[in-house]
Design a protein that fits this description.
Structural class: alpha/beta
Strand content: 15-25%
Distance between the termini: 27 Å
Number of domains: 2
CATH architecture of the largest domain: Alpha-Beta Barrel
CATH class of the largest domain: Alpha Beta
Largest sheet: 7 strands, parallel
Radius of gyration: 20 Å
Order of helices and strands: EEEHHHEEHEHEHEHEHEHHEHEEH
Length: 385
């Protein structure tokens, strides 16, 4: 028996090295809720949920902490984590929605299980299919035609071979010039992806993607609104670029709907958007049954906990597409609370020891979270729990 005896939360507001903006909004800092679960034998597991861009989610740092402390933790404390299916079912039944908060808790639970059995988290889902991940260099929408080329060239010098460009500016010609500048900077052999964050009308998306096809784009992520699958399917048939669905997929059922509508050539899974490992694995299985790949990872600023967790999911999936997008940890400012991810240039080496492999300095984390509570921009409704 492995009884859950405590679930604690640590709200963090951390500085970032660079602003990574998209059509859905900008992130000028990193707002993450760190979750710690403790077992009766003293084993701890750590998870993270990061707030994300304003246009992508209704969850905030404040709501995540309230939901974990007031709803999810009371439901799970006292349960036996070795009855993992029962625990996860309870977590997802307590309240509808709140995938970011649920993903943070689930990550912490699996991290604790990995430490108990001394296996990496990917082992629970059949991995590893890979032990190293080539990461994708992200280029935000704030980088104009004059600055995006030099930044892409810098990333290429650092070893990156794949690049993702945020598009969706009101001046569509600027996006075309931005992509042109990146292609010129990184050369013909590099892979380029674009992401419109559901910002285009059908007419605009068709025009700009057909123009961008001259730059040999690997895929275009979510150019249209998340619920308009018929238009997305029509767009896929009329442009020369493969379509990736992300905002349209927050459950296995939605993944099936995208595939039935033939609206995408591949799907994107963010651990927090999808609600955790179990649902992420289910989505990947649905997509894999059609012989299609999935892209894993989110680039918004986060600590190494979330990025390492997404790397573990990537390692567990047979149909994980090369080029991981779990690069949020690279945008975080200097910190000494969370252990680093092993890297060689643009290549990451996920831990194959126990859990997700990230160690946390709990005392430093407590001090950092306490300092954030005194920040006037953080004011949760209730901290009495």
């Amino acid at each position: 028996m492995m009884k859950i005896v405590a679930i604690d939360t640590y709200p963090l507001i951390l500085p970032v090295k660079e602003i990574y903006g998209g059509a859905a909004g900008f992130l000028e800092d990193c707002r993450s809720l760190i979750v710690r679960v403790e077992m009766e034998n003293g084993i701890e597991g750590w998870g993270e949920g990061t707030q994300g861009r304003p246009g992508n989610t209704y969850e905030t740092l404040e709501t995540m902490e309230i939901m974990v402390q007031n709803y999810f933790a009371p439901a799970l404390i006292g349960m036996d984590l070795e009855e993992t299916g029962t625990v996860l079912s309870k977590l997802h039944r307590v309240r509808y929605g709140h995938p970011i908060a649920k993903a943070a808790i689930e990550t912490a639970l699996f991290d604790a299980l990995g430490k108990l059995y001394r296996v990496p988290l990917c082992r629970f889902f059949g991995g590893p299919y890979r032990r190293e991940i080539e990461l994708v260099g992200g280029l935000g929408i704030d980088l104009g035609p004059e600055t995006i080329g030099p930044r892409a060239g810098q990333l290429k010098q650092e070893g990156f071979q794949a690049f993702k460009i945020k598009i969706g500016q009101e001046d569509h010609q600027k996006d075309i010039e931005r992509v042109r500048a990146v292609r010129q900077a990184v050369g013909a052999a590099a892979s380029i992806r674009v992401d419109g964050n559901a910002s285009y009308s059908f007419t605009d998306a068709r025009r700009i993607l057909n123009e961008l096809s001259q730059f040999h784009i690997t895929d275009a992520e979510q150019p249209l609104a998340r619920g308009d699958l018929r238009s997305l399917a029509e767009l896929r048939r009329t442009v020369g670029i493969p379509i990736a669905a992300q905002e349209s997929v927050s459950s296995p059922e939605e993944a099936l709907a995208v595939l039935e509508e033939q609206a995408a050539d591949l799907l994107k899974i963010k651990l927090t958007h999808i609600g955790g490992f179990q649902r992420g694995f289910e989505v990947a299985a649905v997509v894999g049954a059609k012989g299609l790949p999935v892209v894993i990872g989110q680039g918004s600023a986060c600590t190494t906990i979330l990025s390492a967790a997404e790397m573990q999911l990537h390692c567990a999936l047979k149909n994980g597409q090369p080029g991981g997008e779990m690069t949020g940890f690279m945008r975080l400012g200097e910190q000494n609370v969370f252990s680093p991810i092993s890297m060689t240039r643009s290549k990451a080496y996920p831990s194959m020891t126990a859990g997700h492999g990230i160690e946390v300095d709990k005392e430093k984390l407590k001090r950092l979270a306490k300092r954030n509570l005194n920040d006037p921009i953080y004011s949760p409704a209730d901290r009495s729990a």
